[in-house]
Amino acid sequence: MTPPVAASAGANGVSTRRAQAVGILLAGLGAFVALALVGMLAQETSEPWILGSFGATCVLLFGFPSSPFSQPRNIIGGHVLTSLAGLLCLHLFGPGYVPMAVAAACALMLMMLTRTVHPPAGSNPVIIFAAQPGWSFLLLPTMIGAISLVLIGWLYWTVVKRGVWPHRAR
């Protein structure tokens, strides 16, 4: 599947491949910039700004920006809801694979119910059960990190690509 950022440059196969290569390189640049900036914030503030699922978020945000899963509502809402589900289940039921599975299932249902599906966020309950963080995890890295990625994505699409993002639902 060709990333949406790699638009065709016409009937000429070489031009099309060049446009695809440029689109792929720019998607990689966006992911690099976003993760490097969030990583720098983590290092400078000694706070945990990084969440494992953010790498996959960048795949969608920069590689497939027109996907419904790549829109701010889905990125932020999906990450926050799934982390909330994970934290609730961890603190109500304790650690274990059954509570983790309950958390992941609840996270999926919450995203579907609220129309904020963001597939990378589906790993947040698993991450939470592996790390067993406190409630502050919901704010940082989850909410602040997701908002940061969305802001960096918006700046990237506005400045570097001169495109319009987020895409509006039809």
From TrEMBL:
Membrane-spanning parts: 21-42, 48-64, 76-94, 137-157
Q: What is this protein called?
A: HPP family protein
Q: Is Transmembrane included in the keywords of this UniProt record? A: yes
Ranges of residues in domain HPP transmembrane region? 18-161
User: Record's InterPro entries?
Assistant: HPP (IPR007065), TM_HPP (IPR058581)
Q: Name one Pfam family in it.
A: TM_HPP
Keyword annotations from UniProtKB, A to Z: Membrane, Transmembrane, Transmembrane helix
Q: According to the UniProt entry, where is the signal peptide?
A: none
